[in-house]
Amino acid sequence: MLNFDEEIKKFEKSLEPDSIDDALANYDITDMNDIVFQSTKEIIKNANNPITR
Question: How far apart are alpha carbons 39 and 36 in whole angstroms?
């Protein structure tokens, strides 16, 4: 059975639509572009180094 007092203690208010952009800007989110860019840099670095082949 649910303990409503405990559940209310865990409750976090949701963000207002106006403040969502600010909240997301504070997170370090790696997007797909960052992943592809980093992978490409690693591929180029390894291709230019004949020892790693």
Answer: 5
